[in-house]
């Protein structure tokens, strides 16, 4: 079932390939209720938009835009792998489908990091009215955690993927096997969650994408960027007091990320005073929360979206 997609599972979604200014193409799946803000759902590593398959039915009352992250095997490689470039390309594709609608950013893993960059940029033209970031702390905070041996082992792929030789090493092992191993390491120990994660041949779907040299190269470039200029930029942002000024919900795995970080305390340092921030640790499940416990994630997302959509309607 490696060739399955969100469209395969949910025919009400519209599949679009959008040509963007970089010369590449971004594939997306959308659903238009004709009014209100649009939920933009962006996946992370080592996955695709397929990771939202359990969540989509819960969100049908809202307009949806679900892109494939550039460089991860379906959308084209971006001209530069930094989060701002990638985020702007995604928003360019978004505007081709929804020309004048507000955005609610919902990002998991790398998708959350792209969202974090755009939130700090605080560009009014992006029209991001609120955000939900799933299972991350800011990039510089993640690097600092490597002083903890447990974190170094759990997140070993961060420095590894940033190496110039990482693509060749992964190809030597086989991208399929490497991806499968990576997925096994990060998911939770809860048996129900593990079974839910594997539904619809998800492991085969993701691993098949990592059989492609372009996916390996693109994802490694993403991590290399996160080890270089992106760190310097975040450090500069913090020194200059440039922080998130948009209401933000952070959902995280209490069993995984929550063991390595005081997530609430960390994010308070990255959100401007007076800006609404809520952090919620979800117990018993691992990194892939939207797949392992979709009902819980959907409930938090819907509550947050309803609250902030109502606020926007009153403005």
UniProtKB/TrEMBL annotation:
Q: Name one GO molecular function term.
A: hydrolase activity
Known SUPFAM superfamilies for this protein? alpha/beta-Hydrolases
The AB hydrolase-1 domain sits at 37-186
Recorded hits in InterPro entries, A to Z, give:
AB_hydrolase_1, AB_hydrolase_fold, Epox_hydrolase-like
Per the database entry, which stretches of residues form a coiled coil? none
| Record key words, sorted | Hydrolase
The record's similarity note reads:
Belongs to the AB hydrolase superfamily. Epoxide hydrolase family.
What protein is this chain from? AB hydrolase-1 domain-containing protein
């Amino acid at each position: 079932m490696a060739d399955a997609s969100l469209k395969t599972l949910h025919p009400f979604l519209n599949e679009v390939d959008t040509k963007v200014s970089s010369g590449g193409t971004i594939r997306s799946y959308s659903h238009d209720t004709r009014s209100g803000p649009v939920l933009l759902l962006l996946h992370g590593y080592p996955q695709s938009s397929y990771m939202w398959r359990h969540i989509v039915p819960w969100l049908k009352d809202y307009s949806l835009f679900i892109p494939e992250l550039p460089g991860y095997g379906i959308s084209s490689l971006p001209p530069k792998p930094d989060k701002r470039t990638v985020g702007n390309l995604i928003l360019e594709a978004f505007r081709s489908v929804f020309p004048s609608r507000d955005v609610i950013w919902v990002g998991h893993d790398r998708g959350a990091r792209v969202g974090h960059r755009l939130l700090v940029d605080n560009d009014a033209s992006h029209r991001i009215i609120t955000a939900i970031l799933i299972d991350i702390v800011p990039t510089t905070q993640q690097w600092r955690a490597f002083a903890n041996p447990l974190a170094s082992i759990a997140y070993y792929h961060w420095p590894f993927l940033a190496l110039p030789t990482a693509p060749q090493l992964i190809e030597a092992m086989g991208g399929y096997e490497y991806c499968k191993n990576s997925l096994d390491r990060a998911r939770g120990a809860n048996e129900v969650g593990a079974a839910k994660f594997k539904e619809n041949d998800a492991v085969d779907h993701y691993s098949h994408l990592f059989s492609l040299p372009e996916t390996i190269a693109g994802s490694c470039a993403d991590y290399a960027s996160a080890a270089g200029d992106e760190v310097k930029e975040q450090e500069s942002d913090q020194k200059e007091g440039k922080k998130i000024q948009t209401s933000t919900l952070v959902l995280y795995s209490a069993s995984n990320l929550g063991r390595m970080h005081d997530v609430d305390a960390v994010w308070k340092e990255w959100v401007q005073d007076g800006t609404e921030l809520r952090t919620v640790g979800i117990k018993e499940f691992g990194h892939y929360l939207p797949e392992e416990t979709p009902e819980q994630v959907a409930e938090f997302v819907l509550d947050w979206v309803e609250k902030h959509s109502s606020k926007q309607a009153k403005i």
